[in-house]
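Hi Q.,

Before the meeting this afternoon, I wanted you to have the N-(aminocarbonyl)-beta-alanine prediction in hand. No need to reply - just skim if you have a minute. The sequence and ligand are here:
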Amino acid sequence: MRTLIRNGTVVNAGGAVAADVLVDGETIAAVAAPGLLDTAFDNIDNVIDATGKYVLPGGIDAHTHMEMPFGGTSSADTFATGTTAAAWGGTTTIIDFAVQAKGTSLLATMDKWHEKADGNCAIDYGFHMIISDVNDTSLKEMESCIDAGVNSFKMFMAYPGVFYATDGEILLAMQKATETGSMIMMHAENGIAIDQLVAQAIAAGRTDPVEHGLTRPPELEGEATHRAIQLAKVTGAPLYIVHLSSRHALAAVAEARNTGQNVFAETCPQYLFLSLDDLARPDFEGSKFVCSPPLRPKDHQTDLWRGLRTNDLSVVSTDHCPFCFKDQKELGRGDFSKIPNGMPGVEHRMDLLHQGVVHGEISLARWVEISSATPARMFGLYPRKGVITAGADADIVVYDPAATQVLSAATHHMNVDYSAYEGWELIGRVETVLSRGAIVVSDGAFHGREGHGRFLSRELSQYLV
Ligand code: URP
Ligand code: ZN
Ligand code: ZN
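Predicted structure with the ligand bound:
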């Protein structure tokens, strides 16, 4: 099957250029000046006219939680529904987190996540591994995970008694990461201090969702980020701070990067567009916005956009972890600490970030860099993913920058009963999506299938060699 995408503007991390793209089977065969490919190849089966459109490498969402057991329930998207929603929004690869439960092994965890995902995904997928039980066996098993293409390990300085790791445990895992060239990803919030603030709020009868934000102050994200960076420095380990939300944490990352330390960070659309005001919405509506770290006062957003421009923030992922308002968020009515932590977002990352282009916060090329090229490099997928070039997988998005759309739970494809962006009017819209050459979205319809997505055994991060 050969597809020719004609007359579009190809946008890579290096810039935009008028070019045609020929797809042959699962890969990109050629990228050439407009018109050059028209007669160069026989048997073009399908021509896509991209006049006035951007032709982008498919988005890579490096932080999702499908079917994740958490807070006494499980995130609402399966790998099938979540990857389908991702495709609708121009994301053609996800990297999801396999979660080690205490007392279980990393290898059994990896098998379990394969059981959930294999044969069910509409787009390609990889895994990171969450280590919640640091011991000799799990440290040794990190090596087998790496051999199996799972070479990034998330640890938590938050959630004591659940995922929390002590500084000593973090140090041990970081030493192993240094030894193996793998990456430690950190949820950086001081969970021990936060738990005291949470207990005090509940005891004082302050139980509304906004208290989730007030009991997790940005200083405790900044402190934990700084501490993680120092542990990484002592051990020589590379460090990737996940879901960075505040200027306090950003300052710690920027300081480390300025000294040449291998510290990277991602933020998420919810921190760029939503705020503590949303957590304070009345009638328990604020529960829709409970995630950790929490949404911050609006003025942090200016710093985060600046961080994206200066590359102190190198990636935007969603931390997609949806829980339905009815039945799931409800678990925390009367006690905010029981609201399952997490928000939906996998479908709208590309579109929301495009608003940053529209409003002059980031350039067109930077949009592609933070949403596709850098995640590919960071997590060992480049140049197979993250770039429109000959030889790359034909994961391609034809994007209409002039179209408009209104986000709503009534029309989105995520398996969750609310939208955090209900009624928001956005400029730009995904028109056509190819995953390894197969059309999965076009003409407003889904043409993909569960099981098309393949597991991606990832190379080591290309930022570390
Ligand atoms: O609230 C969040 N972020 N839920 C997902 C789990 C995590 O910490 O990433
Ligand atoms: Zn986290
Ligand atoms: Zn997460």
